[in-house]
Amino acid sequence: MASDGICIAVPTEENGTAAPSSDTPALKIYAGADFFGCNLKDALVAYLRSLPGVEVVDLGTDKYYSIAEQVGRLVSSSAAGGSSPETRGLLSCGTGVGVSIFANKFPRVYAATCSSAGDAVNARSISACNVLAVSGMNTAADDAVKIVDAWLRTPFKAPCPASGGVDWPDDIQAFLDNATAEMAAIPNPSSAASTCAICCLRKGIEFEPVGIMPGGEMKIVRESPTSAIVRFKAGSVEPAHHHTFGHDLVVMKGKKKVWNLTKKESYDLEDGDFLFTPAGDVHRVKYFTDTEFFIRWDGDWDIFLDEDLEAAKEAIDKELASGKN
Asked: Which tens digits make up the pLDDT trace of 96-149?
């Protein structure tokens, strides 16, 4: 129970996550702020840490768009991977609007700026808000605690001020039942038709699953030297591994991060970025959005795993939460 008898909304099948075991937190919240919101964020972090069942990762203070990007990326990645416990975000800047704008650039992030407990109830009930943004200049700490409590205790589709405080009628319930899946499926704006040779080569290709890498598919398009087009779903992870060959890759679309554990370096890759990984270098990868890339290597395909998937996810979550490369 939270203070004043308010229940934390433990994840359930209704809101899309499995209930945790007794020794696991019900919620994991990434928090951050800019200079104008840091005092309010610190007060809310202290409050949240007093509640049982809530794990808070404080990412500190940065420019409002930078801290919102960090929180948005982490919540998006967790939502894509269906991680447990349920993961949410808490952001504060001067108005609470700027951080909300930039957190919402990531898929499966539903950030809302709330200035009252009623706003928070509406945002949770109607839009399954998973990132709460508050104003560091206009919201007192006591009022912000009430907003956070309302955000924590309100499940998706609950009665709210917008519904008149009663259950939504059947037609609205039916709409909401499909809403979050439809929202998550909304793609980024389509780009103009490409004349890139690699992109044209990809058209019409039928991919085959990469059994050793969940979420991955590939199609070899040329042998000796070998080249392939590979794609991974958002939230996918490649555990640490190495090859007997070096390989070049070019990101066609998407966003990924590669940790070269041999060289102790990391690389953030987006559309058009190139990376060469030498033979034998151990590396792990995290995909933040649906990603496709072109890869070329010499010799026959091979792969040697250096850790299991769960160890990789744990290591990546720790790296991202710490803000380290």
From this structure: 999 999 999 998 899 999 999 999 998 998 888 999 999 999 999 999 999 999
- CA–CA separation, 62 vs 139, rounded Å? 20
8 A C-beta contact, residue 139 and residue 96: yes
Q: Phi/psi of residue 183, each to 5°?
A: -65, -45
Span 12-23, mean pLDDT?
39
Residue of 117, 151, 106, 105 whose CA lies nearest to 8: 151
What angle separates helix 117-127 from helix 170-184, to the nearest 10 degrees?
Answer: 80
Q: Tens digit of pLDDT for each residue in 19-52?
A: 333 445 688 999 999 999 999 999 999 999 999 9
* Beta bridge mates, 293: 230, 251
Sign of the torsion angle spanned by Cα atoms 59, 65, 70, 76: positive
- pTM for this prediction: 0.53
Residue 289 predicted with pLDDT over 80: yes
143 backbone dihedrals φ, ψ, rounded to 5°: -70, -35
* DSSP 8-state class, residue 63: -
Rounded to the nearest 10 degrees, the angle between the axes of helix 309-322 and helix 64-81 is 160
Give the CA angle between residues 135, 138, 139 to the nearest 5°: 70
Contact in structure between 20 and 12 (CB atoms under 8 Å): no
Give the β-pairing of 274-277 and 247-253. Answer: antiparallel
CA atoms of 55 and 58, how far apart (whole Å)? 10
Per DSSP, the three-state class of 292 is: strand
The per-residue pLDDT for 72 is 93
Is 254 in contact with 293 (CB distance < 8 Å)?
A: yes
Question: Which residue shows structure tokens 């190139």?
Answer: 274
Amino acid identity of residue 120, one-letter, is A
Are the CB atoms for 257 and 288 separated by under 8 Å?
yes
